[in-house]
From TrEMBL:
Range of residues in the leader sequence: none
InterPro entries: HSP20-like_chaperone (IPR008978), SGS_dom (IPR007699), Sgt1-like (IPR044563), TPR-like_helical_dom_sf (IPR011990), TPR_rpt (IPR019734)
The species this protein was found in: Cocos nucifera
UniProt keywords, alphabetically: TPR repeat
CDD domains the record matches: p23_CS_SGT1_like
Protein's name in the database: Putative Chaperone binding protein
TPR repeats: 2-35, 36-69
Pfam families in UniProt: SGS, TPR_19
Length: 201
């Protein structure tokens, strides 16, 4: 029965299983193809899956079946653009008072909640600025990056200690403790089995 499928679809949606929700709404629509609410709800599940074309088609069908269904207008009523440096979001919510709208945002998230009297609350929460994957380094490259990061974020005493220890030891010692290396010459410490020779020019 369509109402049972609709109930299961709503449960799947609440559990963030949006693929299952879309499948269940589709099965319910096969049984009840003139149900505007089912189209509007499937549109919301498609939005969560970033299936925006399908979401707009479902919202349009819901509006065609029932022009008074507010949530269908909300499902299709946003325009969203995301670049590496900015986000532009426009949401159209006709006839909704400002005190029914809540907007919250942070560095990686945006949340828009619209409370529609007598309807299911509209919630739009896109992912912003996906974090770029850091390049995986290994061996000397990883070690050099570690030292560069330490140096970049260090205070002046740590930078002086790193420079002095590296230069005086001919690149075999790297210290961050200025109290330890500031008052004495840093002797070279070659790896085991190797000999340190002074370069002459």
């Amino acid at each position: 029965m369509a109402t049972d499928l609709e109930k299961r679809a709503k449960e799947a949606f609440v559990d963030d299983n949006f693929d299952l929700a879309v499948d269940l709404y589709t099965q319910a629509l096969d049984m009840d193809p003139n149900n505007a609410n089912l189209y509007a709800d499937r549109a919301q599940a498609n939005i969560k899956l970033d299936n925006f074309t399908e979401a707009v088609a479902d919202a349009n069908k819901a509006i065609e079946l029932d022009p008074s269904i507010a949530k269908a207008y909300l499902r299709k009523g946003h325009d969203y653009y995301n670049s590496s440096t900015e986000v532009v979001l426009t949401i159209f919510a006709k006839g909704i008072p400002a005190n029914n709208v809540s907007v919250d945002f942070g560095e990686q998230m945006l949340s828009v909640i619209i409370d529609i009297p007598g309807e299911e609350t509209y919630h739009f929460q896109p992912r912003l600025f996906g974090k770029e994957k850091e390049e995986k380094l290994d061996g000397d490259a990883a070690l050099n990056k570690l030292f560069q990061d330490i140096y970049r974020d260090a205070d002046e005493d740590v930078k002086r200690a790193m420079n002095k220890s590296f230069i005086e030891s001919n690149g075999t010692v790297l210290s961050t403790n200025w109290k330890d290396v500031g008052s004495k010459k840093v002797e070279g410490s070659p790896p085991e089995g190797l000999e340190l020779k002074k370069w002459e020019y």
